[in-house]
What does this fold into?
Amino acid sequence: MGTILLKNGTVVNEGEVFRGSIVISGDRISGVFRGTEVPDHILSGAEVVDMTGLHIFPGVIDTHVHFREPGGGRKGNIESESKAVALGGVTSFMDMPNNNPPALSLSLLEEKFLSAQKTSYANYSFYLGAGKDNLQEIKKMNCRDICGVKLFMGSSTGNLMVEDDKAVEDIFRCCPTLLAVHCEDNGIISENLKKALSEYGPDIPPQMHPMIRSAEACLKSSKKAVSLANRYGTRLHILHVSTKAEADMLSESGNPAITGEACASYLWFCSKDYKTYGNLIKCNPAIKSEEDMMALRKALKDGVLKTVGSDHAPHLLEDKQKPYAECPSGIPLGQYIFQMMLSLAKGGVFTLAEVADRMSHSPARCFALKDRGFIREGYYADLAVADLDKECMDLSSPASLCGWSPFSGRNFTFPCSVVHTIVNGCFVVRDGALTGKRNSLRLRFDR
It folds into this structure.
């Protein structure tokens, strides 16, 4: 690859928004220039791409996806879902282990890395799953090569749930790197579900979901996780925080080694939306009240919650249209989280600098990513370019293999568009369309 000059864009990076140009040499950023002037020797030897009217962000780092490989069938795979998220400005992703078979061993994890090396359109890493009896695998992992360990503590849609107290404590005590935890208490959920089934039968109204997978269930489990992390000095990252109470708990914890994730779904939707979307927005933990949604927005803005993930979870539409008791949980949103956050910014909820921080800088800091997450000379050229004034009109056919999102088939548009996605200096998306080019790399970590 030669030299590319992204000329006269609006750069959003490290708390600043300024007019400038970015020089890419090979797979790295070789220069960042403020204003409209660029040295003649760069202009003469570079491919110049006009960025006038466009905003250049560091590429989105989505630290929470479910790409369904292996075993996902028609739902999704690494190739299809990495295409989808790349169209939405995502340049790096970290994929969860609840596959078939689940990624509970380092050898199975390496099979996922090998597949991504051949097929992924975005940079990639994969979590090692924490199970009841794979502690030795966790101890052996190379923390510089793997993003973290995922623990379903008390609740899971798959077969990775760990409920035994001793097994959970051992994982917290021995985990050598970031431990990403899904926190819900299964005992509380089971009792709530029994009551709902007795009242409604299997066709439970979708708006009961936040009553079944309640705020109480989330808080009880999250408190336990925080207590264990404090006891054992674990680097804890609580995934998809969904309640005001959990955000308040994190605000009061005072431990910088304990962080929390917001997901775009909990910032965008609230319990009022079950009437419109039904089981299409059924996910675990449940999307909760408007008060919770507003509190999560504030917690993210204030930096209490550090990262924004998609929890991208494709399911077949025919399965999502089944009665509540048979309908799987999960929403395929990875292609749209950047536009969701930019739309919230245009509405005054966040600043553009905050969007860049929570979607790029802070994920890079939280996971100690090597040379990514910032627009800096010497860093990999991972960039997401958006037009904040061009509406995104066609939401009918998302690129995910499952072929739908909550926005499909509705009279809805985002007030902004993703124009280009650049991965390691390569235009993977150009003018809103996939180029067919791949230049992804395995993510590395400074730990």
